[in-house]
């Protein structure tokens, strides 16, 4: 990895980085898709068919995040330290909808699949901080309409958020690190190839080999709370040595 201090770094994270904070992943044996049908709770059609079911699905996850003692872990904190210390841009793109990266100290962050603690007006598209349940009667602060809110979440078949900014970063980064994602969901699963074609060194840090592990220059497997702090130390040793 011939990385120079100051070279731009792009980090992609998935549900695996929040697993050791107590939040379920999607495709592990005990994951979310083992308990819920994706088509019913994470698609626009599912919301049209049964909005109460979808609202309850996200209300339960929002309550878990806000009411239980769910805290950022050492992996979230290590990425924030990298952003603070690396003498160049570190852009963090997360597929996760929890707020553990923010609470861990990261600021240069894109939630490409939306945010659990935000609601979106169905009429205007405006987005609001929202920590309570969203119900069929919830009133939109923008339109004033009762029943006018949905979770600010990117469902399957919907356009992920800030894709232009993400594609720009994929073309310019010199290091692409993928952490805690199974590499099943596109366009995120294709980012490693785009970064690699643009000349970046690509690294996978994951509990086990993801479906795209062969696409990476380097793949290190183990729990994020062990791998990510060690990897960040390795990067910052570059800075000290410079
Ligand atoms: C789009 C909602 C057009 C939020 C989510 C056929 C082929 C290819 C693509 C498609 C296709 N048919 C349809 C598509 C497109 C579709 C797609 O990819 N479908 C898949 C299922 C085939 N994608 C879309 O519809 C996307 N939109 O394509 O629009 C477009 C295209 C390009 C450019 C512009 C527009 C929209 C996708 C977003 C859908 N919303 N969720 C929510 O409810 O949370 S996706 C859902 O999966 C989550 O967002 C999650 O982030 C995402 C990915 O899952 P992971 O984060 O990877 O989690 P997973 O459980 O899978 O893996 C966890 C990993 O962690 C595992 O590898 C595990 O080993 C590891 N791990 C576990 N513990 C640890 C650990 N690692 C480290 N430490 C640990 N302790």
Q: What is the typical, i.e. mean, pLDDT?
A: 96
- As a whole number of angstroms, the C-alpha radius of gyration is 18 Å
> What oligomeric assembly is this protein in?
single chain
Secondary structure tally: strands: 9
How much strand? 15-25%
**Main sheet summary:** 6 strands, parallel
Structural class: alpha/beta
Question: Helix coverage percent of residues?
Answer: 25-40%
How many angstroms separate the termini? 15 Å
Helix segment tally: 9
Query: Which overall shape is indicated by the principal axes computed on the Cα atoms?
Result: elongated
SSE blueprint:
Layout: E1 9-13, H1 16-19, H2 38-41, H3 44-49, H4 51-67, H5 74-85, E2 90-94, H6 100-104, E3 109-111, E4 114-121, E5 127-129, E6 149-153, H7 163-172, E7 175-179, H8 191-197, E8 201-206, E9 218-221, H9 224-241
Parallel strand pairs: 1-2, 1-7, 2-3, 7-8, 8-9
Antiparallel strand pairs: 4-5, 4-6
Helix pairs in contact: 5-9, 7-8
This protein binds ligand BV8.
């Amino acid at each position: 990895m011939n990385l120079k201090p100051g070279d731009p770094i792009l980090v992609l994270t998935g549900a695996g980085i929040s697993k050791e904070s107590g939040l379920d992943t999607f495709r592990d044996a005990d994951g979310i898709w083992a308990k819920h049908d994706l088509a019913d709770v994470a698609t626009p059609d599912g919301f049209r068919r049964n909005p109460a079911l979808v609202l309850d699905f996200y209300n339960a996850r929002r309550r878990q995040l806000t009411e239980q003692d769910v805290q950022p872990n050492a992996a979230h904190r290590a990425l924030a330290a990298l952003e603070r210390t690396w003498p160049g841009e570190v852009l963090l793109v997360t597929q996760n909808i929890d707020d553990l990266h923010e609470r861990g100290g990261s600021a240069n962050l894109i939630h490409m699949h939306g945010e659990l603690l935000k609601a979106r007006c169905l009429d205007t598209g405006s987005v609001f901080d929202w920590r309570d349940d969203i119900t069929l009667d919830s009133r939109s602060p923008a339109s004033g309409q009762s029943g006018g809110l949905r979770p600010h979440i990117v469902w399957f078949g919907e356009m992920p958020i800030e894709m232009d900014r993400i594609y720009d970063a994929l073309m310019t980064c010199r290091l692409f690190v993928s952490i805690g994602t199974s590499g099943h969901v596109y366009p995120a699963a294709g980012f490693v190839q785009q970064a690699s074609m643009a000349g970046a060194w690509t690294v996978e840090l994951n509990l086990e080999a993801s479906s795209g592990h062969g696409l990476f220059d380097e793949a290190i497997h183990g729990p994020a709370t062990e791998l990510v702090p060690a990897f960040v130390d390795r990067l910052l040793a570059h800075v000290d040595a410079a």
